[in-house]
Amino acid sequence: xxxxxxxxxxxxxxxxxxxxxxxxxxxxxxxxxxxxxxxxxxxxxxxxxxxxxxxxxxxxxxxxxxxxxxxxxxxxxxxxxxxxxxxxxxxxxxxxxxxxxxxxxxxxxxxxxxxxxxxxxxxxxxxxxxxxxxxxxxxxxxxxxxxxxxxxxxxxxxxxxxxxxxxxxxxxxxxxxxxxxxxxxxxxxxxxxxxxxxxxxxxxxxxxxxxxxxxxxxxxxxxxxxxxxxxxxxxxxxxxxxxxxxxxxxxxxxxxxxxxxxxxxxxxxxxxxxxxxxxxxxxxxxxxxxxxxxxxxxxxxxxxxxxxxxxxxxxxxxxxxxxxxxxxxxxxxxxxxxxxxxxxxxxxxxxxxxxxxxxxxxxxxxxxxxxxxxxxxxxxxxxxxxxxxxxxxxxxxxxxxxxxxxxxxxxxxxxxxxx
Length: 419
Prior knowledge:
alpha/beta, TIM Barrel, 3 domains, 3-stranded antiparallel β-sheet, 13 helices, 15 strands
């Protein structure tokens, strides 16, 4: 077979009595028996592989090839940029509690020009980014928003283009135009009925958002998703949100409120017991309750499990502010975490630098995570949350009890299967 070169993306580890081999970037993994594990180790160590061994292990070799974990040549491994948040405006008519882009002067700030936005998207295309999330503020307030999404999808052929919106400014004409180009429209929701219409948002918004969902459905978007933010005061209503999405005939993804524990916001942060109960609900409801599917890197891991050794902050995801500043993720728009500005240098140089600087934030370098059996599935949680609570990107994710509860159940299922 010649030399078998191993990608840096491969991870082989033991978990609850089973051996797991997976791709750290895509998250895809497979369970293998002890003999196969020994064979993979021989390949990883560069040992001579006999013909009969290759024949015996052709199934796992095929899997490793399909997942791009072995090739004849891995001279240069490209940067894997999965998701980029592009904030096209600061303007927003709402005043949501805990919003990371909320600023008393945001509606007075100058927004990026269409020309500059298109230049950024061109640069992202060269970096082979997979998903572009257009956000704000409220992106639908831009008069040229259709031109932006058209350029991204039609001219640059970005694989997946999403827009995050409150929906309150969506009308039929705009909806029909956006539906022609977007792969997904994600509409933030706060309440789930007229009786329970709001938690974090301005009063009187529920009816406007519900109307936006109806308009979007009539426009035949490829995918429509509603996005509730889960916090201390609505965490017990998960099933209600899920039922609301079913009734509307749309998808749903739950974002976990990620805010610093200051005097204003501390009463919105879920307790440890609430987080554990949420993990149990995730385990019990399975596919019926998709938590964290999609665009929000601060979301709760959903019911399917992937291999990872970090959340990907500054490596597989970056976020671009309206002034051109680049941050490691959309939850870290803080001056001290800025990693560059697209007005001063090329995105590739910024992303290259971020990849080098943020590669160290992994579970094997975290003093708490390093001894945890769940580390290569959990990935250490969210670095943004850790920073908000500890002012240290290497700190512990305060929502760790939730992830641990979830993966304890997953571990039991793996152990049962192995036996």
